[in-house]
Amino acid sequence: MKHEEFDVMNVEGGSHVKMWTKGVPVDEGARNQLRNTAKMPFIYKHLAVMPDVHLGKGSTIGTVIPTLGAVIPAAVGVDIGCGMMAAKTTLTATDLPDNLGPLRSAIERAIPHGMSPKTRGFKGRDTGSWENPPLPVDLAWAQLKDKFDELCLKTPKLKNTNNYRHLGTLGSGNHFVEVCLDEVNAVWFMLHSGSRGVGNAIGSHFIELAKQDMRRHFINLPDQDLAYLPEGTEHYKDYIDAVSWAQKFAHMNREVMMQNLIAAVRTVISKPFETHVEAVNCHHNYVQKEHHFGKDVLITRKGAVSARPGELGIIPGSMGAKSFIVRGKGNPESFNSCSHGAGRLMSRTEAKKRYTIEDQVKATEGVECRKDVNVIDEIPMAYKDIDAVMHAQRDLVEVLHTLKQVVCVKG
């Protein structure tokens, strides 16, 4: 392993930080967060930082955090199990209709997306949830319900979340559904979502419990969002149980959406086609036990993807930018990981100040998608250059397919 593959940031009083960020900007706020996380006493070996790294809550997004004897709930975050799914089809570019508007509309009808405005006293149905969930949702929920009922015995507030009605739905923000073409004009379906409202409730609940524990035991932290749960405590066990369930929910959420996406496309394209010719379904916000450097370690990937030798993953760009299907090289120094996307270059607020609808229209030329004021924060220029990000991690993954979207649905 050549040292020059990554930069090393030494942290006084903490673990060192290995950064695959050559040629990619990393702002000082993100560096400070990395220093704070590296000072936690249970970090194992080092932090591994991906080229899409940027400021997050507590810990930076785009970071692999290996721990012994503790977990940081805010590092996993509230969109537990958020990730990507992609499936290659037997369709080609010539099979797509000249007018892609009806295809986008069919997808939008088939997959609830967005959310109702958070207004005082609002009691209606969240527009991003199902009113009458279809059969695929019922079949998937049947595999999740018993464990969910167990979780509710410990945490009753989970009963009042959107759980069953959010299964198979997209959400908002940077979540999306896309129809893409690869380098030989094969059609792919790709989507990005996580554990929705119930995952948010689980994450928020345990983040607060961890903060309460820190205050109770007078534990001073460099950032309160680094509050942790020590292994062997009741909250730790309950969290691991809940987060594992939420990760399963997220995985199945993407599967259900993909089923409904395929069915929607078939209402517009009459030519018979097959899907899952090549398929990937991967998390990029999650925690699990793995074996590294001779030990069983808890690995938190906060905006990072597992990239074990031969393992397939997805690295999306942004609206109007390329995405990649990759194969892991199994780099042990990165804890077998790679980036989860391009990574934000600026905040959503800054993007809305800096860019206009005209900029958005120009940046997404050739893509059938929303081009209104409410998605300006997702403009490609608000993200890092995906080509530079891919070059910085060439020792972590190899590119199998390069995808370019032609239809993009956002909440």
TrEMBL record:
Q: Which reaction does it catalyse?
A: a 3'-end 2',3'-cyclophospho-ribonucleotide-RNA + a 5'-end dephospho-ribonucleoside-RNA + GTP + H2O = a ribonucleotidyl-ribonucleotide-RNA + GMP + diphosphate + H(+); a 3'-end 3'-phospho-ribonucleotide-RNA + a 5'-end dephospho-ribonucleoside-RNA + GTP = a ribonucleotidyl-ribonucleotide-RNA + GMP + diphosphate
- One Pfam family name is RtcB
PROSITE patterns, alphabetically?
A: UPF0027
Q: Where is the active site?
A: 340
Protein residues bound to Mn(2+) 1: 79, 175
InterPro entries recorded for this chain? Answer: RtcB (IPR001233), RtcB-like (IPR052915), RtcB-like_sf (IPR036025)
Q: Which GO terms describe its biological process?
A: DNA repair; RNA processing; RNA repair
| Record: residues binding Mn(2+) 2 | 192, 284
Query: Entry cofactor note text?
Result: Binds 2 manganese ions per subunit.
Q: Specify the enzyme's EC class, one word.
A: ligase
Subunit structure and binding partners: Monomer.
Which PANTHER family does the record associate with it? Answer: RNA-SPLICING LIGASE RTCB
Please identify the protein, giving its name as recorded.
3'-phosphate/5'-hydroxy nucleic acid ligase
Q: Which organism is it from?
A: Massilia glaciei
